[in-house]
Amino acid sequence: MDYDVAIFGLGGMGSAVAAHVAQRGLRVAGFERFALAHDLGASAGRTRIIRKAYFEDAAYVPLLERAYTLWRELEESSQTALLDLFGVLMVGQPDSTTIRGMSNAALQYAIPVEYLDNGQLGARYPQFALEAGEVGIYEPNAGVVFPERAIAAHLNLARNHGAHLYDRARVRSYEATRDGIRIHFEGGEAVEAARVAVCAGPWTSDLLPQLALPLRVQRNVQYWFATQSGSAGPAELPAFFLERETLPAPLYAIPDLGDGLKVAFHGYGETTAPDQLDREVHAGEAELMRETLAALMPDARPTLRSTKACMYTMTPDANFAIGRDPHNRNVVIACGFSGHGFKFVPVIGEIVTRILLDEDPQFDIGFLRLERLSGT
Ligand SMILES: Cc1cc2nc3c(=O)[nH]c(=O)nc-3n(C[C@H](O)[C@H](O)[C@H](O)COP(=O)(O)OP(=O)(O)OC[C@H]3O[C@@H](n4cnc5c(N)ncnc54)[C@H](O)[C@@H]3O)c2cc1C
Fold this sequence. Notes:
single chain; 376 residues; alpha+beta; D-Amino Acid Oxidase, Chain A, domain 2; eight-stranded mixed β-sheet; 27% strand; binds flavin-adenine dinucleotide
């Protein structure tokens, strides 16, 4: 047996699994099909929002509590700033999914938030052209995590604990042997591991066609805009998320941290095969975003600076999917992070490690179980 644990994919989740398993003193190998810390997967784009009063489902809050702790521990051990908590503001009608869901999670878990009625919202953030009736909920202990730095920190931690990390090592397939799993690579020799974690992000279905998982990969574009000074820095504006019926999808933004105000629609884009992702951002879609932003923040006068196309891997209910391969209990799969997984990266690393080692995951993750997806 070459390794105790092998990890397929070293993006957001795989790098965290590698770090957590390696810290247990096991023989670990991580295999990444591209360069380490590449920008072709789901985790690239300089910032990812992190927040706790989780409108999507309050059941995520215990995982978020743990994720915050683990992010701070990783900052400490890597001596790297990974979080910037300048606050997050949700805006919508009082009965919108976002406002109702966030308020419910905040109440249920006593998460400090501030409720702003339409007048208070407009007074505090005069940048916004609000619609009648729109309200806000501000969460101060929220902000962003820096994904490229986070992945580098987890990979370094894994390496420092003896993990072997291989770039340009594309896993083709795997099969059960008497004691473990034989792993085959594109154009390489096979190796054997006792346990495997599959963290292949948008490429999960390519790697596991036999499971016919109902995952849909969606193209999502991130835009950075230069704005008039004094309107969009973290001193003037928190990160925000706006649910509005007239928008094609909810709009979110991250204040200008030096490279422009970052904006994107949440879950708006065509379905794609990951290797066929259209990485070019076209003039028409950039103009739609510029017009949307200019209408919301008229004084900002945005001009486009840069763009990046990325991928969401959607499950039918937009909840993550974690569990064992139904045909091989030594293989644990973590996929379908549905465009909201990055903030959870370290806690997913910890949970997948516990499942791999036959330990209790220590969280109620029933709502995330892989088996709920049809076809498994
Ligand atoms: C535009 C955008 C904005 C987002 N915003 C947020 C946000 O604000 N907050 C938040 O929490 N989340 C956000 N997310 C979601 C979050 O970024 C993802 O959920 C998370 O990055 C998924 O990580 P992953 O490890 O599953 O995928 P990835 O990071 O893509 O990792 C998968 C890795 O597996 C490798 N791989 C695939 N197949 C193989 C193979 N056969 N052999 C070896 N290696 C392989 C890939 O090369 C890749 O490195 C956003 C996502 C996008 C696209």
